[in-house]
Design a protein that fits this description.
By secondary structure, the protein is of the alpha/beta class. The chain has a single domain, classed as Aldolase class I (TIM Barrel), CATH 3.20.20. The protein has nine helices and ten strands. The strands form two sheets. It has an eight-stranded parallel sheet with strand order 1-10-9-6-5-4-3-2. Strands 7-8 form a two-stranded antiparallel ribbon. A hairpin with a 2-residue loop joins β7 and β8.
């Protein structure tokens, strides 16, 4: 079973407040926000003022993915702006351990974000310090996100490592996720699935959310035990 976290920046920027309210009406409990600084990644997205405005529009959990250089400079600002969860990239700071501790000191949950090309094992030393692991699952191909199918194997490996260590970090996946990918990722052990155009790019967003939730919340127990469900 996995939660669906709408990526609010895939919505109409002129109506972010309405989009947040719509996401809540569709059953979302988490709103995902990508913060990109133009240095760590070439694009520029939003900053603390937009996060603060979204916080004023909702009581949903705000999941902020910091794709910025030296994120430790901004952790207190984003916590004050209303972030509940903050994901950091190890390569964005010389002291990811210190940044993770700083985030926790601000009272927010902290996650480690892995870029598509990053080795999953590179995050293992931090797993006991984390509330969640964010695995990016798409490469940007000229503005179009294409799901990287190897992500399913990464999620499966992260699930096994979680069981091996006996720790309880959540596994979050972001990028290029539609209904089919939602089902595969949930089966592999993902807990949170970030969706953008698969929700906000649809005319009937209620139907789109219904299908995403259905695919991500099937009874996978028979598959995980290596058996097939009995045909009715």
């Amino acid at each position: 079973m996995a939660q669906i976290a709408p990526s609010i920046l895939a919505a109409d920027f002129m109506r972010l407040g309405k989009a947040v309210q719509e996401a809540k009406s569709l059953g979302a409990s988490i709103i995902h926000i990508n913060v990109v600084d133009g240095h760590f990644r070439p694009e520029i997205s939003v900053g603390q003022p937009v996060v603060r405005s979204i916080r004023q529009a909702t009581d949903l959990e705000l999941d902020v993915h910091l794709m910025v250089e030296r994120p430790e400079r901004y952790l207190a600002d984003f916590a004050r702006a209303g972030a509940n969860r903050v994901a950091l990239h190890a390569e964005s700071t010389p002291d990811v351990y210190g940044a993770a501790r700083q985030a926790k000191d601000q009272g927010v949950k902290v996650g480690l974000a892995l870029s598509p090309g990053a080795r999953l094992e590179s995050g293992f030393p931090l797993l006991k310090e984390l509330d969640y692991l964010l695995i990016m699952s798409a490469a940007d191909d000229g503005g179009k996100e294409e799901f990287i199918h190897d992500t399913v194997s990464k999620v499966r490996a992260a699930t096994k490592e979680r069981e091996k260590l006996g720790v309880h970090f959540a596994i979050e996946v972001e990028g290029g996720i539609g209904p089919e990918q939602a089902e595969e990722l949930a089966l592999a052990g993902a807990d949170i699935l970030v969706v953008g155009s698969a929700l906000f790019g649809k005319n009937d967003r209620r139907a789109a959310m219904r299908e995403l939730v259905s695919r991500a919340n099937q009874d996978f127990s028979a598959h995980r035990q290596g058996t097939q469900p009995r045909a009715e």
